[in-house]
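Narrative of accomplishments. A recurring question from our advisory board has been how the design workflow behaves on a single, concrete structure rather than in aggregate. To address it, we present the structure tokens for one chain from the evaluation set, followed by the sequence designed for it. No filtering or post-editing was applied between the two.
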């Protein structure tokens, strides 16, 4: 790993699960990156939604053995958290310039520069999906493909803009209060999932509440403000050439915008998977619904699942980056072939396609 400019430095602490937590100091502030796996492998970068960190946003997807045999076998994962969203984060100083979405996308580029990553696959959720899409537009030559979960791509409507303003005022004056947590839970999860069986909250909802309680309110407010001032990416989507796979829950408040994004990109470059009875955070609510479409998507890049994967430690043979970057055949990326309107089994133990 090497440093590309004087403005970037790093501080590393070893953390559990065979990874390491890195604080990368960019020209736009420090960014926490959790590196998981063998850094000789191809890179997959992730970016979570507002108020979440990588640990909660992606644990449902990455911690299962099937996902490990597909993702950790093929990639080194670089989990990027928005500034001040990492576990144990301090409050960002009030005199530090507020970052806009373009700044956040440039932060991603500086992180890649530091680790010496030339080309990456990207996985983002909602706000994180927007940042990675913007990054892909700025640096098309550095992005092999996008996996986006309930993505947004348009400037906020007046309704969303006003709603986010209310949330920012709550964050500023009251911190992560009960009303605000309920609003964020509605952003992430479907009503059925929030209610739980017999009215009891699931472990995932309770864990999400704990993550929100631990977050720094003003840091969350800054990220939400950047997203609330985002610009429309629609025009640029038509020129984006990288293959893209979009997941969206039918109960997500961003369902319509995700469909707009898919339609704009076209079926040649973009596959769409709608998940029934699911909110925005498909990675946590129904992660099993993502496995087969992701496996088909990655096959087009020359990656395959490792049989009899022993663990998620990152051991095993290192796959090489495919020379042919042509992705999965368009007919396999069609909504019908990917299983549009997947309906995961309630036990989360099986999927009907």
């Amino acid at each position: 790993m090497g440093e590309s400019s004087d403005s970037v430095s790093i501080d590393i602490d070893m953390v559990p699960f065979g990874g390491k937590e890195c604080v990368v100091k960019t020209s736009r502030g420090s960014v926490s990156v959790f590196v998981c796996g063998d850094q000789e492998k191809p890179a997959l970068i992730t970016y979570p939604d507002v108020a979440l960190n990588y640990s909660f946003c992606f644990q449902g997807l990455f911690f299962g053995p099937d996902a490990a045999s597909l993702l950790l076998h093929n990639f080194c994962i670089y989990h990027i958290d928005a500034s001040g969203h990492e576990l144990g984060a301090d409050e960002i100083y009030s005199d530090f310039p507020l970052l806009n979405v373009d700044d956040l996308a440039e932060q991603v580029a500086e992180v890649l520069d530091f680790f010496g990553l030339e080309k990456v696959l990207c996985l983002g959720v909602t706000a994180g999906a927007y940042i990675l899409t913007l990054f892909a537009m700025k640096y098309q030559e550095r992005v092999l493909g996008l996996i986006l979960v309930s993505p947004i791509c348009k400037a906020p409507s007046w309704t969303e803009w006003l709603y986010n303003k209310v949330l920012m005022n709550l964050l500023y004056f009251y911190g992560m209060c009960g009303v605000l947590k309920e609003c964020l839970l509605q952003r992430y999860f479907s009503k059925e999932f929030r209610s739980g069986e017999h009215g009891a909250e699931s472990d995932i909802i309770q864990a999400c509440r704990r993550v929100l309680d631990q977050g720094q309110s003003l840091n969350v407010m800054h990220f939400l403000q950047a997203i609330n001032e985002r610009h429309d990416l629609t025009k640029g989507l038509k020129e984006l050439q990288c293959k893209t796979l979009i997941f969206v829950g039918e109960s997500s408040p961003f369902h319509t915008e995700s469909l707009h994004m898919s339609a704009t990109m076209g079926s040649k470059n973009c596959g769409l998977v709608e998940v029934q009875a699911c909110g925005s955070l498909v990675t946590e609510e129904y992660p099993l619904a993502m496995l087969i479409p992701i496996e088909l998507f990655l096959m087009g890049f020359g990656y395959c699942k490792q049989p009899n994967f022993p663990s998620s430690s990152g051991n095993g043979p290192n796959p090489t980056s495919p020379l042919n970057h042509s992705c999965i055949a368009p007919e396999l990326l069609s909504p019908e072939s990917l299983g549009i309107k997947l309906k995961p089994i309630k036990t989360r133990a099986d999927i009907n396609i």
